[in-house]
What we know:
The chain has helices at residues 3-37, 41-48, 51-58. The protein is elongated and about 60 Å long. 77% of the residues lie in helices and 0% in strands. By secondary structure, the protein is an all-alpha fold. It has one domain (3-65). The mean pLDDT is 93.
Amino acid sequence: MNKDSKYTLELIKKEKQIADLYALIDTLQVNLRTAVSYLSEEDKDNVVNVQSYKWCTNWKQGDEKL
């Protein structure tokens, strides 16, 4: 395998890993929002006003490039 082929294969693997991570993040965001929807309004307010919750639920693909 020549050097270019090796790097191309590595790049393809990395791109797949990144796509898998995006899918994982999306799934976790959906699960987090679903879990919060089962909370009482008081508990929900306590959770959704936490900065880390806002970061998690508002993050979207491409934000890491900023």
